Amino acid sequence: MAKARSKPSKQAKKAKPAKRAKPVKPAIKAAPKSTPAAKPAPVVKAAAKSSLPLLRVGIIGAGGIAAKMHLPQLTKIPGVEVTMLAGRKPERLQRLANLYGGEIVTDYNRVIDDPRLDAVVVATPHPQHVEWGIKALHAGKHLFMQKPLAPTIEEANRFVQVVEASPKITYCLPQLSFPALENIKQLMASGALGRISAVHCRVSHGGPEVYYAEVRDLLGEPPLKPGEKLWFFQAGEASVGALFDMGVYAVARLVAVLGTARRVTGFTTILDKPSEVEDTATLLVEFKNGALGTAETGWTDGARTARISVHGTIGRVEQNGYFDPKLVMHTQASKTREDIPPKRTEILCKGAYKNPHEQWIDAIRTNTKPTVETARAARHITEIMLAGLESAKSGQAVDLISTLE
Question: How far is CA 236 from CA 195, 225, 241, 243, 380, in A?
Fold first, then answer.
């Protein structure tokens, strides 16, 4: 029997959601303030040529994911300049500035307060996302939010309220507007698959130590020393494990194709890693439309998996790879002969891929708020994962409060 919880009011009103066991919030130190010590002159690199007005961007938490994703993507967009980089490690900041340009600071408030900046990327550890995201919006800046949104539903609710009261553009990862998912949704809407009964999605890899090794190479840093602990594995710093790190992609894709969920049953385990948080997780999610979704993830999949399959009463469609533009559809070949194999059709997805930073900048320039990568979607995805962790501890299904509407 599912745990019953009260229904929220619309537009993220101040009524408090029903209490649930909160994950331990990590004791991450506040961002250190800049020291008055002499610093190298800022490296300012010209933005890619464009006739469009220049957009100046600052990054808060300029570390590994900035090196791997944010900076390479942003600096290729015409008319965009990364003006300021804020982080906790001056050596990293200097290397990034040498590669991509930008003034470096260790006080995150310098980014918030700088009147030159039009927009801010929040790339801190996730327990700090909402705090700095709200500060950026209050300062009148457009916002790009790393995933996952927050470690508690209370923070997620507060974030939605601020975003919806702001005229600025907020884009929340994970990215869900790309050709494969758009084409899957079109097939579902056309009736080609019949009534949708289930969706299965798995996104997993070999563990954060693989990602971290690549990041350290990008930043010119030595490998971790033998016995040195990775912060991803420590409950006090990370607070959550593989589910929030990689499972967020699987859960987000379920929500993208099925909409609002209403109940979650979760299973987690520590299978292989020297971790205080889960390294493997599976969620069974019941959706408002009656379909069932399964989200699988883990840090224990060395061969990496990114796969979604949508099953209907007439056929199913599958996609492999993060952004593979090819779908494979299987449809019923006979209603009187069980052993006749389904018809197999390969579909090349229509539409050009744009990375999430391109989509965000387009939204800013056209003053068009995202309809998919929204604060409400990020909150709903967060609540599904929190409910999964709660269910894994209690052994009971957990009813959800938030919706996409």
Answer: 44, 21, 11, 16, 25
* Domain range annotation of the chain: 22-176, 179-352+381-399
pLDDT in tens, 196-216: 999 999 999 999 999 999 999
Per-residue pLDDT tens over the stretch 100-133: 999 999 999 999 999 999 999 999 998 999 999 9
Is the fold of 22-176 the same as that of 179-352+381-399?
no
- Measured at the alpha carbon of residue 277, what is the angle toward residues 296 and 249, in degrees to the nearest 5? 30
Half-sphere exposure of 161 (CA within 13 A, CB side): 14
CA 161 to centroid of chain Cα atoms: 19
Is 179-352+381-399 assigned to CATH 3.40.50.150?
A: no
Report whether 60 contacts 115 (CB < 8 A).
no
Q: How confident is the model at residue 12 (pLDDT cuts 50, 70, 90)?
A: very low
Q: Reply yes or no: is the peptide bond before residue 23 cis, omega within 30 of 0.
A: no
For the structural domain made of 22-176, what CATH number should be given?
Answer: 3.40.50.720
Q: Residue 177 pLDDT > 80, yes or no?
A: yes
- Distance separating alpha carbons of residues 404 and 389, to the nearest angstrom: 21
How many CB atoms neighbour CB 312 within 10 A?
21
CA angle 60, 154, 401 (to 5 degrees): 125
